[in-house]
Amino acid sequence: MSRDRHAGDIECPLNSRGSGGSARGAILLVLADLLGRTVAAPTQLPAGLLAALVGAPYFFWLLHKSRRKA
């Protein structure tokens, strides 16, 4: 049984790929932590800041892509 689509629904392309999205998120955080520790040594940049620099543009790209289809 298919779900009814509503005007404001956003379809995520990662839903049908199982845990691939979780693995990519974990890898993103590990790389952000690693970069945060090494780029500005001896100080550290927060991993959340570096992850947001990559994750926010990707989220807005997904949002724009899903709105264009509708």
Automatic annotation (TrEMBL):
The keyword Lyase does not apply. Coiled coil: none annotated. Gene3D superfamilies: ABC transporter involved in vitamin B12 uptake, BtuC. GO terms for biological process: siderophore-iron import into cell. The keyword Cell membrane applies. InterPro entries: ABC_BtuC-like (IPR037294), ABC_transptr_permease_BtuC (IPR000522). The lineage of its organism: Bacteria, Bacillati, Actinomycetota, Actinomycetes, Propionibacteriales. The chain crosses the membrane at residues 45-63. It is a multi-pass membrane protein. Its main location: membrane. Keywords: Cell membrane, Membrane, Transmembrane, Transmembrane helix, Transport. It comes from Mumia zhuanghuii. Belongs to the binding-protein-dependent transport system permease family. FecCD subfamily. It comes from the Bacteria. Residues 1-21 are annotated as: Disordered. One of its GO terms (cellular component) is plasma membrane. GO terms for molecular function: transmembrane transporter activity. This is Iron chelate uptake ABC transporter family permease subunit. It is found in: Cell membrane. SUPFAM superfamilies: ABC transporter involved in vitamin B12 uptake, BtuC.
